[in-house]
């Protein structure tokens, strides 16, 4: 994945963001997720989206497993900033993350994992 140079790009500690049409694209970064850096990331996303939930295409990377409190907090923040999330990764990584985050209850937003960004974008179109 190449970060575009023809449009605004936004940075947080855990991701780089840009728009592709009406889809918010995120390139995940490897730092361990904490309540603090997720809180900061939520603020960045709200500023990018004008405080409106967006359809997100995220390119996942491997990062350390967050603690339980961070996982629970992240789950509560998803519907605040996203309508739906399409995760593009190596086979197995997205499924592992979904199992980790949603072991006890289902995802609060529509989520699906892909190995192809074209398929992910097509799926997200129903949420834009």
UniProtKB/TrEMBL annotation:
It holds the Pfam family DUF7793. Residues 17-127 form the DUF7793 domain. InterPro entries: DUF7793 (IPR056695). This is DUF7793 domain-containing protein.
């Amino acid at each position: 994945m190449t970060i575009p140079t023809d449009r605004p790009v936004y940075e947080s500690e855990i991701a780089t963001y840009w728009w592709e049409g009406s889809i918010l694209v995120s390139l995940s970064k490897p730092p361990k997720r904490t309540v603090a850096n997720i809180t900061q990331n939520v603020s960045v996303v709200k500023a990018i989206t004008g405080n409106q939930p967006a359809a997100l295409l995220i390119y996942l990377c491997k990062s350390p497993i967050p603690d339980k409190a961070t996982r629970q907090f992240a789950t509560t923040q998803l519907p605040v900033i996203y309508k739906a999330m399409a995760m593009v990764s190596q086979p197995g990584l997205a499924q592992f993350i979904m199992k980790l985050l949603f072991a006890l209850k289902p995802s609060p937003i529509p989520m699906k994992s892909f190995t192809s960004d074209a398929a992910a974008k097509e799926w997200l179109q129903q949420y834009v």
